[in-house]
């Protein structure tokens, strides 16, 4: 057996030093791992800034308390989202769910459900009528808007050629920003947030592209801009290769034959580079046998915040559509006839109105209609 050669009896000072070191290390560990004292939290009540309801029978109002929240077509998660509301927005409340978890509010020309907890509330909502069975529908758009593209033989040829290189004729996808996120664009239609009874012929189009409305694009996210299309930093690592950008990844995974290109809002400060970045998106889509369908934007952030000439980015989109011979949905033109040009009225934390860019319900309806009408003309279905 191993024996220590140290005579501990002859080294009492070493015992003392060892004990001192152990004690010092113990004190250091306590200092490092003990929680620091935390100052008592103070809750600052946000003001309820809503104007009194115009309807004297309304007794309950809400003010959105989050930066943004989704609203739903029914009082459950399964029905799906039909739109978005923003911080500081005010709504009258016309009903509630039996379990008090959902409130029914007017939303554009229809109604929508919002989850309790995402708002400040004024009035006793527990006495409101129980309306669990209310499933909302978007209002009908009575006539076709301006800005729909004229679909040519070349456009249809590119769509048909996509199928010959293995592309899915029934799949359309999108590259875009917050206004193109699944919950407020393709998925909104899947959640019955848009009513196609305004044009019964669209029923065939919807059936043909039905799978497109049930998947989330890998090249769409909030604040997305044209320069991010090929930047692998923004790709989903679970589905994309290490150096594969969002656009390449989405076109590979979806096998889409049509790509709606809906970027530009997030390029307001990089508008000088927008043309080159946007051109690269078009050329990449065409190189993969995909028909790009370009879409202008409803906002004017590039001129209001970036200092660009008026309508600069939209004019670039229009001119590139002509140069490459691909369809352009002029969404900007169509939204000029909508309330607030199809956009929500937005406020900052100082409650001052800021430059709008999120779409309101009428803007989302118009966008869906223009998309479906364009797909119908391209596919001939």
CATH class of the largest domain: Alpha Beta
Instruction: Profile the largest sheet.
Output: 4 strands, parallel
Low-confidence stretches: 1-13, 36-44
Domains, number: 2
Notes on the structure:
- By secondary structure, the protein is α/β, with parallel strands linked by helices.
- It is built from 10 helices and 12 strands.
- The strands form 4 sheets. It has a 4-stranded parallel β-sheet, sandwiched between helices. Strands 4-1-8 form a 3-stranded antiparallel β-sheet, with no helix packed on it. Strands 5-6-7 form a 3-stranded antiparallel β-sheet, with no helix packed on it.
- Strand 2 and strand 3 form a beta hairpin.
Short description:
With 381 residues, the chain is of the alpha/beta class. It is 30% helix and 15% strand. The chain has two domains: 61-127, Roll (SH3 type barrels), CATH 2.30.30.40; 153-379, Rossmann fold (3-Layer(aba) Sandwich).
How are the elements arranged and paired?
Blueprint: H1 12-33, E1 61-64, E2 68-72, E3 81-86, E4 90-92, E5 95-96, E6 102-107, E7 110-115, E8 119-122, H2 153-164, E9 168-176, H3 186-190, H4 202-208, H5 246-254, E10 256-262, H6 271-287, E11 291-295, H7 301-304, H8 312-324, E12 328-329, H9 331-335, H10 361-379
Parallel strand pairs: 9-10, 10-11, 11-12
Antiparallel strand pairs: 1-4, 1-8, 2-3, 5-6, 6-7
